[in-house]
C-alpha cells in the first residue's frame, strides 16, 4: 500500500464531507487524522477492501470520527492535549484502581457519587464501574448483555447521573473506567429485534445460518465458554428459523465484524462513552472478535487488526482515552493485545494480567513460587507505553490458564496439577481452608474454573467459623501479601471492592433463579458498609486489612521504582517458597527495592549474597519500607516470617 493512495482517498473524503462537519473548527482533528490516516486506511482496507462500497464505508468512518470530535467537550479536548504531551502519564506509580458494581457498592450512581471519599481515604484514584448500560432483567450476564449501548440502565440511574459522577471524579483526579461490550449484544438489542423481524441490514450484524452445516464446522474447533449453562456456540431462533452464533450465553449474540457497519457502530459507541468522560474504556472479550472456521475463533489476527483500527480512530477523536484489553487467554497471547511487531503499544495500552493472577493462586495453594517464577519468566517483556492491570480477584472466575510446558518444567503433570488446584480451592482437599466453588465445569474436557471471594479463598471464612486466631491471622496475611504483590509488581493494581475489608462469599444469589446457576455471583456481593465501619475500630480484621492496604498504597505512590518501565528483574533463588524480584529506577544507582514474599507457613531464609540482589541492596543496611523495620538476619541470611513480605531498600543507597 502506498501513502499516495490513502492520501488521495483522504482528499476525496474531505471534499465529500457533510457540510455541517466542514463548517466546524477542526484543526486538531485534521492534524491527527492526517497523521493517522495511512494506518487507518491500511487496516480498514485489509479488513474491508474487497467490498464494492469500500470508499463509501471509509467516508462513513471518517464522518463518525468527526461527529464525535465535534461532540467532545472543551474540557476533554484540553485533557487530550495534555495527555498527548505527557503520553506516558498512566505508567506512573501514582495510579491505583478498584473495580466495583454500582448497585453492589451503593445502590445507584448518585449513591456512588456520595461515597467517593471512601476511595480517597484508601488511596484509590481509578475506578472501574462494572457495566451500567441497559440490560434485560434477568438475562444480563452481570451487565454484559447490553440491550441499549447509549443508555444507562434505569435501575442504576440515568446518563445525567453518570455525567455528574464523571465531573466529581474529575475534580478529585480519579480516573473513570467504563465498559464497552464489543463482542456481542443482548438478544433484546434493537439490532437483534430487527434481525428477528427479517431486516436484512441487521441480520448482517450477526452470524446467522439457515442450517447446521456451517455451525457444525465451526464447532469442530471452538471451545465452549459456559459449558454447563450454555453449551455449544450456536442457538436456534424460532422466529427467524435460523441458527445464531452465541459464544457466551444463548442470549448474547456475537457481532459480525466482517461487516464494516458493525465496526463503525461500535467505534461510535466507544467514542460516545469517551465523550461522557470515560478516561479508560474496558473492551470486553476482545479475543473473540473474529470468527474463523477451523480455528478456536479466539486471538485471530483480524481481532488484532480490529483493535488496532479502533485505537487509531480513537487517537484521532479522543487521544487521551486509553483501552483496557480484557483477554483472558494463554500467556503468550495476552501480551499481543498491546500490539504485535511494534515498539509502542498500538492496540490496547492496558491489559488484564490474567497470567500473574492465576499464578498467584498457584503459589498460595502450593506454598511455593516455582510455577509463578517459571510462568512469569516465560513471558516476553511488554511493549513501551503499555502496562498491566494487576489483580488478585475480579468479578469473573479464576481460570488456570497457565502454560502446560511451564507446569511440566517445574515437575508437575498438567492435568493432575490443575485437578489439585481445583480441589484445593473448592473444598475437596483436606489440608485447605479455601471455600471456593467450581465454575464452568466441562465434563467432556475435564476442565473447570474457580469462583469465590478473595477472603473466602484464602481461608478467612473457615478460620472465622473455627474461631482459631492463628488461622484468622494466616488468612489476613494472605490477603495483604497478595495485595502487596499487585502493588509492587509494575502496572496498575486493580483492587476488587470488598477485598480491602475481607468480605466473604455471599451465597444469596442461590435464591435468585436468574443467578443460581452461575457461581460467579458468590463474589459479586452487596458491599457491607457495616463491616466497612469496623475499619475504624482497632483490633478488628477490617481495621487490620484496610489500614495495611492504605499504607501500602501510600508507600507505593512515593516509590518511583514502582512505576512501570520494564524496570523489574525476577530473581531466581534457591528457596522455592520465596518469590523475589527487584524494582529499580532507570539509572539503577539509587532507590531500588527488593520485593521478597514468603508463601510458606514456616519462616524462610534468603541468601543475600547474590549478584542480582546486590545490584539493589549492596551495603546490607536494610529497611522494610512498609513496617519501617530492619528485618531479622540469621547467620548472614534474611529471615522472612510465614506469609510475610518485605519491600526492602538499602538505607545507604536510599535516595
Ligand atoms: C467478559 C466478562 C464476563 C462475561 C463475558 C461475556 O469476559 O468479564 O463477565 O461473562 O465477557 O460477556
Ligand atoms: C472465559 C473468557 C473470558 C470470560 C470468562 C468468563 O474465560 O475467555 O473472556 O471473562 O470466560 O467466565
Shape: globular
Total count of helical runs of at least 4 residues: 25
The CATH architecture of the domain at 365-565 is: Alpha-Beta Barrel
Q: Give the uncertain stretches in residue-range form.
A: none
State the separation between the terminal residues, measured CA to CA: 52 Å
Number of strands: 25
**In what order do the strands lie side by side in the largest sheet?**
1-2-5-11-12-13-14-17
CATH superfamily of the domain at 365-565: Glycosidases
CATH class of the domain at 365-565: Alpha Beta
Description:
With 655 residues, the protein is an alpha/beta fold. Among the domains are: 184-254, Oligo-1,6-glucosidase, Domain 2 (Oligo-1,6-glucosidase, domain 2, Alpha-Beta Complex), CATH 3.90.400; 365-565, Glycosidases (TIM Barrel, Alpha-Beta Barrel); 567-654, Golgi alpha-mannosidase II (Immunoglobulin-like, Sandwich). It is built from 25 helices and 25 strands. The radius of gyration is 25 Å and the shape is globular. The mean pLDDT is 96. The site of one alpha-D-glucopyranose (GLC) has 9 residues, from loops.
